[in-house]
Amino acid sequence: MRGATRAKWAVCAVAVAVAVAFTATACGGGGGSDSAGVVSSSWGDPQNPLEPANTNEVQGGKVLEMLFRGLKRYNPKTAAAENVIAEKIETTDSKNYTVTLKDGWTFSNGEKVTAKSFVDAWNYGALLDNKQKNASFFQYIDGFDKVHPEQGTPTAKKMSGLVVKDDKTFTVKLNQKFSSWPDTLGYAAFMPLPQAFYTDHDAWLEKPVGNGPYAVDAYDKGSVMKLRKWDKYPGDDAAKNGGIDLRVYTDSNTAYTDLQAGNLDLVDDVPASQLKNVKADLGDRYINQPAGIIQTLAFPMYQANWSAKGKEKVRQGISMAINREQITNEIFQKTRTPATDWTSPVLKTDGGYKEGLCGEACEFNPGKAKQLIKEGGGLPGGKMTITYNADTGSHKDWVDAICNSINNSLGNDNACVSAPVGTFADFRNKISAKQLTGPFRAGWQMDYPLIQNFLQPLYYTGASSNDGKFSNAEFDKLVNEANAETDIADAVSTFQDAEKILAEQMPAIPLWYQNGSGGYTDRISNVTLNPFSVPVYNEITVS
Predict the structure, then answer these.
(1) Of 141, 145, 147, residue with least CA distance to 181
(2) How many Å apart are CA 533 and CA 72, to the nearest integer?
(3) 370/318 Cα distance (integer angstroms)
(4) How do residues 395-433 score in pLDDT, each as one tens digit?
(5) For residue 394, what is the enclosing H or E element?
(6) Which run of H or E residues covers position 99?
């Protein structure tokens, strides 16, 4: 899953392991906020500016969830796709849809939210010239191939499948049947945009304007984004606090220390090094619940030494050299569960989760691991590096543990080493530039609760979050067939057939399913995480 701009402020304790030293400026009691009723929360700078169709990572996604409301929203308790701005979405053939909007919605600058607000935003997101990372989410709309050709330049500026009928109505023609398409519309890429986005784009990027319960007050990259309650928000999920200060931390342990000191109200990722103590530290203010998150190691399939024929054995062997159970028990104190497929148990069986689908390739077997790696020609160059961002989530602990497990399994202390990158944004930039030469951290937080979302965005050829650039024609064919199924059970079965190809090719190693974790001070209450492991910010109250 999600974007960035400037700098000036910092956190209350000195952050380490970064090139820039931060100093505190707003660190008093009661969370250090500069306005009554404002909640301070840990955060990391997003990779890109906060355009909805260009945000496909978690940190930017947190902001978009506060700034925007779309046709649908995923229920913060159940993840069910529920109508928000959509009055109804109708179809008789799972290919042609009529969307009718509710009255009364506006953007925070006063512009009305109309059918054109959606259609213009989707056309902008799809157009190749705009270089939006989530463009592939529009690929099933008729005419996408004209605005976003696989090769060459666009022959159209707008998708022919989108037609505005009036202010409250637009139609969508898909290029194939897609029965669950309406349930994807809560994802950020499908949010509406005001005309101000186009008329003064640079100003919008500096201070995004949306239609959600919060509005951006200020953003200093590397420091803090300040969001404030929008008093005229027309929805029924208005903010119950005065605003949210998202403070940038380059070390999650520093954030946790600030939380304990009362200088920060909320952390939404308890570092692994604190899991042994967190219950004693926070009591019932510690949150630990299942979430639609899977951690994987992705391979740079654009590197010939990793993608050559036979190297699937090497990739499978590496997977079998990892003692997932030991790592999840010792490092994560059982807040993770060893993964045996590429989805999440949150989906449940009916939704596409299938325990054991990965087969023996996800089982710890040092002997077989060594054999497969040898049969595949050995590790490229005789060793491998695992790249990760060092600023959030205490990734160092588990990456080192994985390397230790691989080295022990192969009987070679130098087979695997870790390669930290200072910040999440820099890490994502290296991935986008295809600069990685070995496997890398590739956790996935679901955008919507469908098996399709765990497979297509990550492994379909050219998909928005296919960071390893895996491409397999049979996988793509099965995904297309699954999307066209009108029966949910048949669709799930076909998606699982596609998933079996991942077990054969292992473009990414499933590691573990992740619980959402968080902690907060006694200054705030009514703190929960949604099924995506993101705080339900608008529900938080301040005492």
Answers:
(1) 141
(2) 19
(3) 8
(4) 999 999 999 999 999 999 999 999 999 998 899 999 999
(5) none
(6) strand 96-101
